[in-house]
Design brief:
Blueprint: H1 13-24, H2 29-38, H3 52-65, E1 70-74, H4 82-98, E2 102-106, H5 110-113, E3 119-124, E4 127-133, H6 134-140, E5 141-147, H7 148-154, E6 159-166, E7 169-175, E8 187-190, H8 193-201
Parallel strand pairs: 1-2
Antiparallel strand pairs: 3-4, 5-7, 5-8, 6-7
Helix pairs in contact: 2-3, 3-4
Length: about 210
């Protein structure tokens, strides 16, 4: 599923569902109907008359209801408000529970999907920076905060992926085994997936 419109704009949503079912030979009509009601999508409206958000919803329903083993979702919640994005994540898990398969999701809303992911691939300029399970990444990434001098002594041997200074305090984003006996003025906390991504891909500003 992507932003591209692969169906003629004059087709009604219901007809798109029927064509998709015919192409794949199967379709989860029960889930499609449930999602249509939940998202308040009118199946008798043509695609061209739908807003960007509702076109995304129609395509999401088709993507989740086909019997394919691999589903690729490119920015799947484009045009959806917060409530509908949350509803989509709910139905993504519902579809997976009904028929386990591989979902490949590209998104900029990293923290929203963090709890759904088993494996993460971080790309920057076409280069793979990290490929690991979500759990491994979250266990590896830490942020250390404290006075600059104290932080400098602690981070020896650690891989620094980012650093910020504010009001005399330094925050350093690192990967590696954190020393057990930290100075009292240094704190450590895990990195969430979005912060990890931002620090790993952030470009230096001159």
């Amino acid at each position: 599923m992507s932003e591209d419109n692969l169906y003629p704009g004059n087709l009604k949503v219901k007809k798109c569902f029927q064509l998709t079912a015919a192409f794949y030979g199967s379709f989860d009509w029960d889930l499609a109907q449930e999602m249509t009601v939940a998202f308040e999508l009118n199946q008798n409206v043509s695609l061209r008359k739908l807003s960007t958000g509702y076109r995304s919803i129609a395509k999401l329903i088709m993507a989740l209801c086909v019997p394919a083993d691999y589903i690729f979702l490119d920015e799947p919640v484009l045009g959806l408000d917060a409530n509908y994005r949350d509803l989509f994540y709910h139905y993504l898990l519902t579809a997976y529970a009904k028929r386990p398969r591989t979902f490949v999701i590209s998104t900029h809303l990293i923290e929203e999907v963090a709890n759904l992911l088993e494996e993460v691939i971080i790309l920057d300029g076409g280069k793979v920076l990290r490929k690991a399970t979500t759990e491994d990444i979250q266990l590896a990434g830490k942020v250390l905060k404290g006075p600059k001098e104290a932080i400098a002594a602690v981070i020896k041997g650690l891989r620094v992926i980012g650093q910020e200074e504010l009001g005399g305090m330094t925050s350093v984003y690192v990967e590696g085994e954190i020393p057990k006996n930290l100075p009292l003025d240094v704190t450590v906390a895990p990195l969430n997936l979005q912060t990890y991504f931002v620090q790993l891909t952030k470009k230096d500003v001159a």
